[in-house]
């Protein structure tokens, strides 16, 4: 049954909190606490090691991968879960490089998340084959698809500004140049409609603790285009990506299909939480979600520009070029965000000066947006941010 957004009752949100940080860590979906507690006592507690078989723990990565796959337009059994996004990035990247041994360039852009770039740098150093990480401005990605590019490793939605790439156009440009296309969907999955099967990219990766509400430390996902999945060479040749893990052979042989992108023991408790968390998507139409996200974001931009002249929009004004988050630049952005958080309006801060707000239509509505700007305008106009308590920086911003 299609549902009308928001579906706030599907989440356990603290009373009075306006949560505009679901792009960084999604809130707790209702039912997860109980399901994980039951799982711990009824499966782990009661069945112990038998749980791997009778409770289907070993099949979890593919089963949950199929739930994620529905949201990103992936065919069944083309996504598996596990590890963290940084690990999935390096797996996909290494497999892509092996597909283009005669090319030496990894193309990325300056809007990518540092961990993706760091993983590429680490891989290049260890391969010691003369690869180069070429970082261009986001607007130049398509023009930079030259015939030396082995893999284009691009994050669709910029974590700072929310600027969004056109997946079809970039994928077409990469493939026309003979490059392998690797998409990072960290800020796309559950935020904007994605259609991996139609897009035709070779690889995609993403995380599940942001818009998919899987909780802190929730596992990442990796997609491999089905026609390639039997042919790619895994970098991380762990036993659970082996064709016969329980044969305990001395030599690695990759499992058929996407299973070869598994590495070691799956995070069973985290996957159990995520599997239940995915129920919040029941009946949610991604086009409805996108329309609601743009309504909320446009309203926020209009309200802030009207009432908070101290701030400067740092996201694309055109909704079609923006993901599901909006950032504003402000010299005292860190302190202003601390003051907002003290009033239970939760966003976050990205250096050097960005106040970042995520709009997640599953549990944020227009009234929340107006109330958030009420607080923001008050904090700016009264200079409430200007106290030492709000200047003190924590380890996580
Ligand atoms: C959030 C994010 C990450 C984080 O990676 P982890 O390994 O899960 O910590 C990596 N890349 C991008 C693009 C992200 O947005």
* Main sheet makeup: 7 strands, mixed
Number of spatially distinct domains: 2
How far apart lie the N and C ends?
Answer: 39 Å
Helix content: 25-40%
What is the fold-level CATH name, i.e. the topology of the largest domain? Aspartate Aminotransferase, domain 2
Strand content: 5-15%
Bound molecules: pyridoxal-5'-phosphate
Rg estimate, integer Å:
22 Å
Topology overview:
Elements: E1 18-19, H1 32-47, H2 51-54, H3 60-71, E2 79-82, H4 85-99, E3 105-109, H5 114-127, E4 132-136, E5 149-155, H6 167-176, E6 180-184, H7 196-199, E7 203-206, E8 220-224, H8 268-277, H9 286-307, E9 312-313, E10 325-329, H10 333-342, E11 345-346, E12 348-350, E13 354-358, H11 366-381
Parallel strand pairs: 1-11, 3-4, 3-5, 5-6, 6-7
Antiparallel strand pairs: 2-8, 7-8, 9-10, 10-13, 12-13
The structure holds pyridoxal-5'-phosphate.
The site of pyridoxal-5'-phosphate (PLP) has 13 residues, from helix 4 and helix 5.
Summarize the structure.
The chain has 397 residues and is of the alpha/beta class. It is built from eleven helices and 13 strands. It has two domains: 8-28 and 285-391, Aspartate Aminotransferase, domain 1; 32-281, 3-Layer(aba) Sandwich (Aspartate Aminotransferase, domain 2).
């Amino acid at each position: 049954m299609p549902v009308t957004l928001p579906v706030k009752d599907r989440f356990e949100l603290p009373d009075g909190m306006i949560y505009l940080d679901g792009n960084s860590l999604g809130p707790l979906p209702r039912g997860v606490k109980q399901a994980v507690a039951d799982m711990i006592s009824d499966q782990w507690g009661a069945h112990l090691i038998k749980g791997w078989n009778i409770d289907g723990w070993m099949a979890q990565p593919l089963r949950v991968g199929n739930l994620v796959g529905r949201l990103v337009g992936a065919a069944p059994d083309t996504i598996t879960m596990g590890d963290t996004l940084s690990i999935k990035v390096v797996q996909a990247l290494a497999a892509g490089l092996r597909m283009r041994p005669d090319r030496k360039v990894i193309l990325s852009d300056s809007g990518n998340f540092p961990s993706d770039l760091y993983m590429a740098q680490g891989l290049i150093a260890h391969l010691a084959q003369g690869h180069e990480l070429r970082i261009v401005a986001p607007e130049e990605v398509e023009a930079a698809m030259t015939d030396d590019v082995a893999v284009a490793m691009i994050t669709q939605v910029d974590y700072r500004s929310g600027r969004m790439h056109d997946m079809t156009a970039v994928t077409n440009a990469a493939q026309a140049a003979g490059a392998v296309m690797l998409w990072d969907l960290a800020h796309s999955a559950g935020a904007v409609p994605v259609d991996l099967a139609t897009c035709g990219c070779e690889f995609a990766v993403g995380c599940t603790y942001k818009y998919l509400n899987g909780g802190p430390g929730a596992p990442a996902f990796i997609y491999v285009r089905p026609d390639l999945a039997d042919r790619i060479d895994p970098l991380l040749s762990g036993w659970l990506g082996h064709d016969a893990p329980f044969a305990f052979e001395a030599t690695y042989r990759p499992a058929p299909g996407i299973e070869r992108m598994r590495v070691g023991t799956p995070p069973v408790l985290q996957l159990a939480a995520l599997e239940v968390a995915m129920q919040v998507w029941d009946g949610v139409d991604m086009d409805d979600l996108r329309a609601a996200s743009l309504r909320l974001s446009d309203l926020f931009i209009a309200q802030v520009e009207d009432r908070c002249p101290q701030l400067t929009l740092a996201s694309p004004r055109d909704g079609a070029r923006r993901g599901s988050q909006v950032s504003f630049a402000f010299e005292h952005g860190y302190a202003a965000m601390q003051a907002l958080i003290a009033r239970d309006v939760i966003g976050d801060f990205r250096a050097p000066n960005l106040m970042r707000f995520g709009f997640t239509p599953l549990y944020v509505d227009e009234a929340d947006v107006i109330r958030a700007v009420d607080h923001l305008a008050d904090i700016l106009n009264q200079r409430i941010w200007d106290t030492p308590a709000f200047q003190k920086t924590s380890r996580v911003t």
